[in-house]
Design brief:
It is built from six helices and ten strands; from the N terminus they run βαββαβαβαββαβαββ. By secondary structure, the chain is α/β, with parallel strands linked by helices. A seven-stranded mixed beta sheet has the order 6-5-4-7-8-10-9, with helices on both faces. The protein has a three-stranded antiparallel beta sheet with strand order 1-2-3. Helix 5 packs parallel to helix 6 (202-214). The protein starts with a strand and ends with a strand.
Length: 243
């Protein structure tokens, strides 16, 4: 994790909604926001803004009730920045939160990025950050809140992707969702495409690997520890590659 500036102390306390809304309005007034637009939601308060060394451009904002996720994604971020896994690829990110990873993929050469989330605040947050960073071209945010049990909810079923990124840590009934995800994954990947899934709990990891084996998908745990040595809870998440 490489943080250059944090607008609040490490222990972030939510601002009152009115103050957060005022913060956005003030940012627009001084020219560092996307301006008043009908397609953006300005009703959420801002918890903090952070400048990140990997992501160039305006600092990202974190809205109320949206997870930041920046401290839990270092390994994936290195794969995007150092290994170029998104370059020249169509990318789908499921559970985008602030849009950090999705926007990083765009900056690192992705040709198209679709980001989804089950949290309406996160949907508004990702759209706002994309507008603030002037990165809306080839970027789409979709609403998955109407069907939380379907990890591909809101995504056009006709679209296929070269790279799919999914985080199971924030979903309800993650074991069932992981099974549903694996069952649909072959229909959503292009030939030769890959998926990077993040699991924070060993039961979810185990069920995902079992279902992938049953459907004859190839998997690889992108972690130094062997599967049996992984803790029951892994806050930073364990990355699994599925092909």
């Amino acid at each position: 994790m490489k943080l250059l500036r944090r607008s609040q102390p490490n222990r972030v306390r939510p601002m009152p909604l009115a103050f957060g809304t005022y913060f956005i309005a003030f940012a627009m007034l001084i020219g560092c926001g996307p301006g008043s637009r009908d397609d953006l939601d300005y009703s959420y308060g801002v918890l903090q803004t952070i400048e990140d060394e990997d992501l160039q451009g305006a600092p990202l904002s974190q809205f109320e009730s949206v997870e930041w996720g920046i401290t839990r994604s270092e390994q994936l971020r290195r794969m995007i920045v150092d290994d170029g896994i998104a370059q020249g690829r169509k990318v789908l990110e499921i559970e985008t939160e602030t849009g950090l990873i999705a926007l990083l993929c765009l900056q690192q050469g992705a040709t198209k990025v679709v980001a989804s989330d089950t949290n309406p605040a996160a949907i508004a947050n990702a759209k706002y950050n994309a507008a603030r960073m002037e990165m809306e071209l080839n970027f789409e945010v979709v609403d998955a809140s109407k069907n939380r049990s379907n990890p591909f909810a809101g995504v056009d079923p006709k679209k296929k992707f070269d790279l799919i990124l999914v985080d199971f840590r924030g979903r309800n009934s993650p074991e069932d969702v992981a099974v549903a995800f694996i069952d649909e994954l072959p229909n959503r990947l292009t030939p030769g495409g890959r998926c990077i899934a993040t699991c924070g709990r060993k039961p979810v990891l185990t069920r995902l690997l079992e279902r992938a084996s049953e459907t004859e998908l190839q998997t690889n745990i992108l972690h130094d520890a062997a599967r049996e040595d992984l803790p029951e809870e892994h806050p930073e998440g364990v990355l699994i590659e599925v092909r």
